[in-house]
Amino acid sequence: MEQEFDLDLFGSTSGPPAQRPERPRASAPLPVRMRPATLDEVLGQDHLLGPGAPLRRLVEGAAPASILLYGPPGTGKTTLATLVSSAINRRFVALSALSAGVKEVRAVIDDARRRLTHSGDQTVLFIDEVHRFSRTQQDALLGAVEDRIVLLVAATTENPFFSVVSPLLSRSLVLQLHPLGDEDVRALVRRAVADERGLGGEVTLDQDAEDHVVRLAGGDARRALTALEAAADSALATSGGVVDLATVEATVDKAAVRYDRSGDQHYDVTSAFIKSIRGSDVDAALHYLARMIEAGEDPRFIARRLVVHATEDIGMADPTALQTAVAAAQTVQLIGMPECRLALAQATVHLATAPKSNAVITAIDAALADVRAGGAGQVPPHLRDGHYAGAKKLGNAEGYRYPHDVPEGVVRQQYPPDGLRGRDYYDPTQRGAERALADRVPKLRKVIRGD
User: Fold this and answer.
1) What class has domain 182-251?
2) How far is CA 30 from the centre of its chain?
3) Mean pLDDT by 10 residues, the chain (451 residues)
4) pTM for this entry
5) Which CATH superfamily is domain 375-449 in?
């Protein structure tokens, strides 16, 4: 799907006045009608649009550059792309990554090259949801972006460092849009109630209803306006245009959960989940668990993270933590959602409130480092297998001391290779059940090594 516009700089004296996108029809959805017509109407992106900020400089005549606009839904990516394109006096072509393929991309580039050669007209190519392009489709853009045959303005809801090929990233300025703050959403809602493009003052929005719309939006302008429109339609039909809390609750019953199972939200929320457990904040851990569950995260993934955490950050400080995590993983397999959320929550509570120790992971990583550095060495002869014919001729198992032959069950004997004698890997903490090991392990080493 391709759209083309020839746009001039805002009211430039060097040519005809800038052509604005057609005013949305009165029956268009409220988010479409309230789309900002100028950069000054854009809310919540001051870091990009303030004096001297990257997008403002680009619009005001700085050297043109290809840009990637990255941010969650409803933050104004498409709006900014359209406004920027209209401001820099370039031909504007829009492609949707949902429907365009390599053929369409190359056709736009070929046409842009002809126009640039014959008339000097440069083309701005806007690609919405660029993360949906395959690697091949993205690679098709590289030469044209490199040579500035086109200026690329691309929008994506997914972290481009995960979803956009590196060569295209290196040729573009990545600009991250932030979710709108509550006050930005509130200002947008009030504008929509009063503005002729919006509801034109036909409804009255109660304060508690406004607060609820802001809360439901989750930083998404589109969601806020969609909720407002639904509530306003209901109020005009039933209550004379008064939008109260009951009206909003009746028309919109669920808040937005900003979470992308294949992008950075997936990694950020998972990271926060594990770090909250590690930090023993059980309430924050349950919050992030709820966000993952509500967003439809695979419960098997959550269970795997809990199992890993039980050994990585708790270990022997509470050996039962691993049992609980494994039981939760088995419950996920046996029962599935929604009931298995209870087992996941129980495991989360157990792990978050358990004493913490990273002594296990520190120990195995130190041992692995020695092995990788060539510290394997020969197995001492008395520890080698002596159960096969000829083992005795090789001296295998000769001199081995059986620990159960002594009352204490521990004997003086060399176990590691010669080069690693006296090397300590496991350093128990004084936390939880590991406190007893912190006393016991040095005593065992003293007996075994004869120190």
Assistant:
1) mainly alpha
2) 29
3) 39 32 68 86 86 76 76 84 73 81 87 89 85 86 88 86 87 88 92 92 91 85 90 87 87 60 69 93 94 85 95 95 96 88 96 95 92 84 81 80 90 89 91 92 91 78
4) 0.56
5) DNA polymerase III clamp loader subunits, C-terminal domain (1.10.3710.10)
